[in-house]
Structure formats: structure tokens, C-alpha cells
Design goal:
alpha/beta; six-stranded mixed beta sheet; two-stranded antiparallel ribbon; 11 helices; 31% helix; globular
Amino acid sequence: MIPTYRQPVIHVEVTNVCNLVCSNCTRFIGHHRKPYMMELSMVEKALESLYDFPNKVGIMGGEPTLHPEFEEICKLVQKHVPFEKRGLWTDGAKWDEHKDIIHETFPEKQIIYNAHDDEEVGEHQPLLIAAKDIVEDRELMWRLIGNCWVQWRWAASITPKGGFFCEVAAAQDWLFDGPGGYDLVPGWWKKNPNEFMDQVKRYCENCSAAIPMKGVSSHSQWDTISESNAKKLEEVGSRRYEAGDYKLADFKLTEEEINQTVKEGWEPWSHRPYKMNKPDERFVEPEKKFV
């Protein structure tokens, strides 16, 4: 694992409301009983806590443009985050309404636009499969978790419940009524792995991000979940679980099978082969190898 201060992005998750219900969403959209809109005072506190974070500060959801105070959020970003460090992750739900302030606030190449509307491409790692349910070799499981690509390639996160070393851990904490994250004091993110091991132990074995396996189309009608998380979803009253929009993962993975998946080109961080910064604009980035 890497220190939080070395991660490429820290997201401020301004809402967990979304206009889409993609299969195996990284934010578990469709399961929540408790949607939220982050208060502006909390947004400002989050941004202030990241004052000298050396890398990118992202605004994300759910779908951030659905926040009723999205324009005010953009103004707070303008106030507290240097232009070159700002990023926005959006499916474009209210793009036409907010496009002017979006372009005023964020560098174009740091607007990550994904409408999830291309039915021919798009896969998600099924993150509600718990590593502990499918990898019986615990030493192997923790070795894979220790090199999880989410830390290297994606982000840490802030929700209304505090700061998290991992965006998936943050989403888990909200879905399963966890104890919350770190207090948003300035520099909370200056943590090395030993200092956020409490969150690692709490969340990582309940997630499959680090476990090489085949992805699932984001346009499928179900989430793939494993037994231990199924019990948790039942306990919290998940809407998707109660509706039967899931499939149970009842398989185990050996080290040989995991290695074979890696050799076949496992790249769960790559949802699709092209990038978009606004509607109807696609480009292919140079290939980046996972080290």
C-alpha cells in the first residue's frame, strides 16, 4: 500500500444520489436507504483540509451535478483549490444546465465524463464480492490487498462521515453504517499505511477490488455479491437486494486461477477503452502499465 499523500486523487463525494443504476457501481448506487447531499459547510471543510495536498482534488458522487447547490460547490472549489489541481467526475446528468461553470471551474482534460451509455463496452469489478469469501488462502488474500490498484490508480475519499484512505472503503462505510472516517483536520491525509490500517482491516477483506477476476457489464440487471455481504445487505435493507437484483457468487479462486486472469489482461481500473471530457468527444490515452 502507498501513503494517502501519494494517491493521485482525493475525492470530495458531494452526494450518493445518481440518475443511473449501473451494475456493480463503485458507490453501490441502488442499495442505499440513506441518500445524502453534502452540506456546503462540510464541502468547504473538506476542501480546506486538503489545502496542501500535492495531487488532484476531485468532485464526485453519485452524480455531483444533481446536488441542488452544485454551482455553489464549484465556487468553493474555485476559492480553495488551485485550477490545475481540480477534477470533476460526472455522467453529465445536468451538463447543459451547468456546463458554463463546469468549464470555468475545471481544466477540460480533468473533467472525466462518462454517461455509461455505450452498451457495447463498460465493465465493473463486482465490489460486493468479499475477498474473504472467495480466496481461502488468507496470506494470498492479504498480499493482493496490499497491492490493490484502487490506491495506486484511483482515489481516497471524503464523505459526510469523514476521510477515508480508499474511495471504495468510503462507499462501504456509508452503505453498511460503519463508524465513519478520519476527522477532517488539516493534513488528515498525511497518513502512511500503518496509520490507516484500522480502515484496511475493517473494509478490505469485504471488497474484491484487489482480487483478479472477470468483470461484469455495467449494463447488466444485477449486482454480483458474495455470502457475507449478502447478509449485510439484508441487515441494512438494501433496495436492490430486496428487489432480487443480484446474483450470488459461490465460487472460490486459487492462486493459479488468479495468475491466469492477470495474464489475460485484467485491468479493472479501465471501464472503457476511451476517455471523454465532454459529450460527443472521445479520445484514447496512451497505454499506462500497472506497476
